[in-house]
Amino acid sequence: MAVVGSLFETLLALYAATILLWLVSLRLKNASIIDIFWAIFCALPGVLLYFQIDGSGPRAGLLAGLCALWAARLSGYLAVRNLGHGEDYRYVAMRKSREPSGDFAQWSLANVFILQATLAWVISLPVQLGQFGADKPLGPLAFVGVAIFAVGLAFEAIGDAQLRSFKSEPANKGRLMTTGLWAWTRHPNYFGDACVWFGLAIIALEGPIGWLGFASPFVMAHFLRNVSGKALLERSMARKYPEYAVYVARTSGFFPMPPRGAPIGRVAAAENVESQPPAEPEVIDVQAEPIVSNSDASSASSADLPPQTK
């Protein structure tokens, strides 16, 4: 019961923070600020629980610390990229779709803010559950998990940096990024985000009830690959850029693999993918591209997000 009570408290705290952010979005007339806070929402329950249980051991500190590190990088990146540019066009489309009923404010609370907060809490379960019974020394699974986490964080950070550098060059306007990590996978940020959460879930397995949260990274991976991330994004890219098919034929869709065939260079399409939060299914049909949080979303994704992770 202590575990259930603690988890319920972190959920209530996350909902309270979400409602405050929603009120800010109403004031700013900008619902897309949720993208910046997606990673923070994923990390907040685990960090709150760490202080709630007084960080009883090294595994608790490791889980909370790594998750906070991931959130700080992704949210900071999105804040620098998005602030000052107004509401993202995807949310503008949602807002316009609700004009006939005039209820966008109420609709966005349930279908954008609360829904994403709930998903973030579910994804955070390994970080929360892995902290219980964390007074024992770290074992081999923890080191395996840290290694996988590090690979994922590197893919996200390097992929974002490469894409930012590419897009900063005026000569690359209207072109597709196909070098660096982007030559090995069409979605380095989505792949990195999945690795981050599988790594955290593996660390949590060393706890007595950490296994109860092991489904969470599969939920994240499902959204990234099949719902609001890769699948929807690539349909949009294929519609916009006929030459995208060449990139698809040459480059792995998710897991990094050596490029196939002859180099395609930097083919057209100036807006590649970055980080955003996984989006709610109701919203998907309203927009041209997914709301995913990770640094991997075309044109306006982490993460322009991903949206991710995305």
Short description:
With 310 residues, the chain is mainly alpha-helical. 60% of the residues lie in helices and 0% in strands. The chain is globular, with a radius of gyration of 19 Å.
Number of domains: 1
Query: Between the first and last Cα atoms, what is the distance in angstroms?
Result: 35 Å
H and E order: HHHHHHHHHHHH
Average of per-residue pLDDT values: 82
In which range does the helix fraction lie?
A: 55-70%
Count of β-strands: 0
Structural class by SSE content: mainly alpha
Query: Segments where pLDDT lies below 50 for 5+ residues?
Result: 264-310
Strand percentage: under 5%
Largest sheet: none
Helix count from the secondary structure assignment: 12
Rg measurement, Å = 19 Å
What spatial form do the alpha-carbon principal axes imply? globular
What would the keywords be for this entry?
disordered C terminus, 310 residues, mainly alpha, globular, 12 helices
How would you sum up this structure, described in words?
The protein is globular and about 55 Å long. Residues 264-310 have low confidence and may be disordered. The longest helix is centred in the middle third of the chain and has 28 residues, at 140-167. It is mostly helical. The protein has one domain (2-284). It contains twelve helices and no strands. Helix 1 runs antiparallel to helix 5 (104-123) and helix 2 runs antiparallel to helix 3 (58-82).
Helix-strand blueprint:
Layout: H1 2-28, H2 33-52, H3 58-82, H4 89-97, H5 104-123, H6 125-129, H7 140-167, H8 188-204, H9 216-227, H10 230-240, H11 244-250, H12 281-284
Helix pairs in contact: 1-2, 1-5, 2-3, 2-5, 3-7, 3-8, 7-8, 8-9
